[in-house]
Amino acid sequence: MPASASAPEVCTVAKPRCPNLRLLLPNFVKRLNASDRGVLVHRPPSSPRELVACNLLFARYSLTVGTFILVAGRFGDDFGHKRIYIIGLAWYALWSLIAGLAVFSDHVLFVFARVFQGLGPAMTLPMGLAILGQAFSNGPKKNMAFALFGGSAPVGAITGFTTGGLFVLPGAWWPWAYWSSAIALACLTIFSAWVIPDTPVNGETQKRSLRETLAHLDPLGMATGVIALVLFNFAWNQSIVVGWQQVYVYVCLILGVVFAAIFFLVELHWASTPILPVAVFTSDVAFVLACTACGWACFGIWVFYAATFITQLRGVTPLQLAAWYSPVIPSGLLAAFAVGKLLGKISPAWIMVIGMLGYSTGSILIATMPIDQTYWGQFFFGVLIMGVGMDTSFPAATIIFSNAVPARYQGMGASLVATIVNYSISLGLGFAGTVELQVNDGGITQQQKLHGYRGAFYMELGLAGLGLALSLIFVAKECMAGRSKKAGVSGRGNIELPVD
């Protein structure tokens, strides 16, 4: 770890007007983010083409969030986390309103609104984490704060399923699913500006000229990074629609890889203030990021395809779907509280292993579940276990990063973890969608659909297994490093000093 991990910078913030809400507000906004994604699964697709469209809407929203989080992190570090947080809330409210207004237009406006909507949580999610990172010093309180932040996700997901189910009932109107979010977000924008304490801005920022400020933002790194992420993800998700036989699909994939290489060259050799400081990246951090990517790609596939499986093949209604998923709330919250207590007592590496075990077990249960099995069988226990996976892996990753970077880089550290989470969800859906369409033989009959969904679930299981293997390697590496350190200390203690 960098030296900052052992001697973190202390950053004081103004005392909030409502101290107990300092943790609540970032959690509540993350809940709205999760609930908004949940709305999409409440109008079950009636054909393979509609299923692909739903997959793309789900994936491209997460793509927007994951792609622009790093950019938002740098802006937050330079111009103040609270300021960018408030802007993100207002932006999110505006495009939620427009998404609902698309009912008076066509699907093109709705798709654009969903894409631009993702820029809101791209700002609020890392800024909320950064505010928490600055508000608490390293210790039990900080561990619990990050754990509870992660624990808000299952509450938000079930809120979204329930809200979406209510607004597609006969006599209701689906745009209110978005308009209600817009109203809530507008109120939160005003409330947050009053409640959340002002976060300190780097003093050097205020002394820079406009040209120096632009150079410090690392525009070349931002541009190449965003282009690489968009092209690579677009290729995988677009292949679901048109297939890999289209030249432009694999051209986009190749260009994405090329721009990614250019991005790393810029960050290593060109940028004076890189958007991703190289000093942050250690082997431990690399293992954590890889485990996080595998776990959340698995989770994104599970959320979308489990819901599709039971609505398409079991005829489960939207409100029943919310009830079926509801056990994730107690399991997720209990896992979050447990992680908050355990962090500091056991290594985050072991917590990551627990998370990967949860993802792997939950994936096995849903992949092998018979169509006509009772809810209280594999689906029920799968929901409980996946909640544990979700709310153990995320806090472990954020704590490691928050402790590893100085206070002035809290936005960057939080942004990187959030980028991995959201981008992995989007990319994982692209992988799963490709597998599904390759094995479902058109997806016309129920048996063909089942075959396609099984293929997606096995893709999910493969990602979960990879994450588990990486987490076990990480633990083994950490144990070996600990033994070497103890052996070195013991050896130095037994050295006989020469006698003059």
TrEMBL record:
A Gene Ontology molecular-function term? transmembrane transporter activity
Q: Topology with regard to the membrane?
A: Multi-pass membrane protein
Q: What is its main location?
A: membrane
Report domain Major facilitator superfamily (MFS) profile positions.
1-479
Its domain of life?
Answer: Eukaryota
GO CC annotation terms, alphabetical: membrane
Pfam families the record matches:
MFS_1
Q: Print the keywords alphabetically.
A: Membrane, Transmembrane, Transmembrane helix
Presence of the UniProt keyword Membrane in the record: yes
**TM stretches of this protein:** 50-72, 84-105, 111-132, 144-170, 176-196, 217-236, 248-266, 278-304, 324-343, 350-369, 375-401, 413-435, 455-476
> Where does it reside?
Membrane
The protein's name in its UniProt record: Major facilitator superfamily (MFS) profile domain-containing protein
Top-level taxonomy: Eukaryota, Viridiplantae, Streptophyta, Embryophyta, Tracheophyta
